[in-house]
Each structure stands twice: as structure tokens, then as C-alpha cells.
Amino acid sequence: MSDSDVDLTDPASFEYWIVENVRIADTDMGGHINNTAIAAYVESGRVARLRTAMEQRSDGERWVIAHVDIDFRAEAQPPGQVRIGTRLMLLGTKSVTLGAGIFMADRCLATGHSTMVFLNGPDTAVIPDAVRQSLAASPKD
What we know:
Order of helices and strands: EHEEEEEH
CATH topology: Thiol Ester Dehydrase, Chain A
Helix content: 10-25%
Shape: elongated
CATH superfamily: Hotdog Thioesterase
Largest sheet: 6 strands, antiparallel
Structural class: alpha+beta
Mean pLDDT: 93
């Protein structure tokens, strides 16, 4: 399946889920969940997913963000929770691209992609086999 075949607006597309409470601080002057909060939700899902793959990392191994894009699809207001779906889109030699979907109830609020580059110390590095296997393993919530 290619990246373009995946429908990030469909909850069934996701292999990993976390839940976040919507806070009043996540809203804009109109009381809607604001775009910076959506970006933080994408980050929360990405960090949680990558953390599962890095449980046995060596000192100096880490991820840095290279690219993020977000498509805002619907407005929402608190109170409530958002479900953040994350899935592997592309696993390269030194980078990984994750897809994200932000859902409130059954409505998709936003979708996005994050490309992360693997580092060991200050330099880019090949993603270790154990990390690659963990990323490809499709964890479930």
C-alpha cells in the first residue's frame, strides 16, 4: 500500500491510538480548538508512537523533526477528548514518516504527516534494526 492509498480521515487506517483531554487553553477566542492545539495533538501521537520503538535505545540516539504538514478538516469545541491515531507511512534508511488523524467523536478534525530523521549524537544515522522492526510491527492500542 502506498502513502497515497491511505485515507487518514478513516479511523480504521490507524495502528496506534492515544487519547488527550481538550483543555480550555486549547481554544481560540471563538471557543474552537485552535490550530496550535491540533499541532500539539499530532506531536503527542508521534512522540508516543516513536517512544514505543525506542524502548531499548543507546545513548545519543534520538529523532528530530524534519517536516510536518497538517490539514484542518473540521471545527470542534470543548469539552471532550480527542483520539489521536498514528500510523507508519514510510520507513526509510534514516527517516520515518508517520501519518496522523485527530478525531472527536466520529468526526475527523485534522490529518497530517510528520517526517522524523534518526540521529546518533549530532549526525544522521541509519535506523537500527530493532527500531525498524518495532516501527514495522503495527502496535495496537
